[in-house]
Specification:
Keywords: Pyridoxal phosphate. Pfam families: Ala_racemase_N. This is Pyridoxal phosphate homeostasis protein. The chain is an alpha/beta fold. Helix content is 45%, strand content 15%. An 8-stranded parallel beta sheet has the order 7-6-5-4-3-2-1-8. Helix 3 packs parallel to helix 4. It is globular and about 55 Å long. The two termini are 27 Å apart.
Length: 247
Amino acid sequence: MSVAGLEEMTDRKTELAAGLERVEQRIAGACAAAGRDRDEVALIVVTKTYPASDVRLLAELGVRQVAENRDQEAAPKAAACADLDLTWHFVGQLQTNKARSVADYADFVHSVDRARLVTSLSSAAGRTGRELGCLVQVALDAEAGGRGDRGGVAPDGVEELAGLIDAAPGLRLGGVMTVAPLSGEYAGRPAAAFARLREISTSLRAAGPAATMVSAGMSGDLEHAVAAGATHVRVGSAVLGVRPALG
């Protein structure tokens, strides 16, 4: 690598370190305010639209959990970073025809929202011989029996879908995930939305005690998520900066 290239990488690592430190302070502060231990909340850095080189720098800075939301970007990035000790989370809407690819690299899929996807992921997990952690994506903007604008199953469908995951070979029920909705009764009310997700999680754990993950909160609302009991926050731009425009 040229001198200029090395300087650029050094500058980028400094930027990422600063972003991580700011987010760490926010999470620690939110935990303190909520009376929670800092180690109760895991940071997942969402690296979508950023290159594999950033993933490598994040790993050097101690990041161990990263997320992507598009398989066409995630698959080659995960392959380029296969030598790193990372846990990969898939957090975007997932088509059934992408399940086979995602099962090759993802450790967790946060966006399971329909029976057909459970079947596809189970088949894919069996082919790879890997166990895949699955979270039910809860759509708090969905009518009963429906799905949300950004994917997810309505709250009344969580228990049934969780049961399908729990019974599917190669899959492990991890918990629940949501994105603060843009419409419906919880629009603009992230604290209330995440509190509702916590209620759903508590109910789900009564039947499946191992389903402990509560994935909620992003760069703009992570404090509300931590206050409501999130175990995992998914943060991208607050660590990596303003996202490049997609081509």
